[in-house]
Amino acid sequence: MTISFLLLAAITIIGTAAAMSLKNAVHCVLALTLGLVGLAALYLQLGAQFIGLTQILVYVGAVAILAVFAIMMTRNRNQETASTESGSFRLSGTLTALLLFAVLAWAIFTGISPQALGGAQPEASVHEVGVALMQRFVLPLEIIGVLLTAALIGAGVLAIEEKEGNQ
Amino acid sequence: MPEMIDQIFVLLKHWIMGYVPSGLQPVSSAILSVLPVIVVFPLLFAITTVLERKGLGRMQNRYGPNRAGPWGILQPAADGIKSLTKEDIVPRSSDQLIHLMAPIVMVIASFLVYTVVPVGRNMVVADLNAGVLFFFAIGSMVELAVFMAGWSSRSKYSLLGAMRAIAQMISYEMPMVLSGIVAIMAAGSLSTVTIVNMQAGYTGIWPHWYLFTPWGITGYILFMIAATAESNRCPFDMPEGESEIIAGYFIEYSGFKFALFFVAEYLGMMATSAMAITLFLGGWAAPFSFLTWIPSWFWFFAKLLLMMMIFIWIRGTLPRLRMDQLMNFGWKFMLPLSLINIFSAGLWHYLPSGFTRWSVVSLLLLFSCFLLSRGLRRNKWFQERTYRFAS
Question: pTM (2 decimals)?
Fold first, then answer.
């Protein structure tokens, strides 16, 4: 429990809590981004560089921008979210949170505890990740690669057809 | 002696560290590594602004700034004082906190990326083993800052500028990363220091830079085009387009906050140039084997200024693209070509070295470049030009 860990944990918790409690949707996205950056910093502090940086690249660089774009495109004015007040929303939200907490707690209690590893820091460098991806998980990697390439080409094709439709 | 001059800053740091009590060693080491970055690069930014204005002035047959100091060299100081003393106007309807945070986030992100740039032999703030990934990850935070600036100003022009900027940055981030991947593939590492070290060594007098391979030069050109678009510079400066949306996402900023956006833009431009130098131009390595006696940091900054010159030259030469031209170019030309470039870099690795792989890979790249540019120009060959509002 170092000071840096406490600071980062505080940033993460404040960010995510603000994301739930703020009224303005854009504020929520920005607060959530703060929480995700705090989480990435926690990964980096644990020495998991690849995961931490990918977290920033994916969540801050892509997901936050996507969310922000969706909000900007879909609403004209910054109307406040009304649906959070309804009872069923709160009930389902509480239920989801409890379920998630239960799964996480189960995972923590049944997983390998840090003491069992005997103090040796597990190495999670980019090299290790690369070797694991290229040897043990090569088939899922290939499938995801094909899928993403197809999605990329599909996006391009969609854009091209839209262009021709306009002409 | 050349060795000592090469390592003079490293030795200086070690000498200062000798006087620091051991309890403060980690902190002072970090400060001593970071301080040069936040002093040198803004200074370089100041020099670049005056060079840009002088250079553009010459290209447009005028003098450029020549009043402050000899040859106008003190112009950046005058600009800095001016923007510091200007009134800081915040629109009443703006989102005060986010309006304030946007330039700060942008400048922090722009400075952070210099952490992984090797500016000389043994001269890098942090040699992360995911250095290139760090660069792109932090670089993507700039987009969020752009959105924050555009949205919080509550101005149509700001929002339009931010939309344009983000659309453009997202579109060109992918070709940028994909064109950088070839260097990572060839070096087999994400660490910037390792990538530079892999390009060390000479054949005769010629260096082993990735630029001097068919996929390397393609990757370099793609990377530089994408970098120009990423930093919202001419010919990709629609987000700022003075004649259309006045100044884009930072139109509602004045005084020093405006200056911060300006600083961030140039720092970002220099950072991507530094990354291009690291990936393709051998980092701090000398361009010829007989010039290795000149210190490594000199070569890095010489290359950086050369890249700045190219940026300024392009700005003085090319007109602004339209939005659809920008998107077409990004998605239909840059992206496929960078994917083909990755493939050809793999091909290069497995073909026997010599004339065969040079010709095969070059032909593949030239042919695909030709086909893609034909595809881009489809139906646009001999169209009669119509002026809708003039005829």
Answer: 0.84
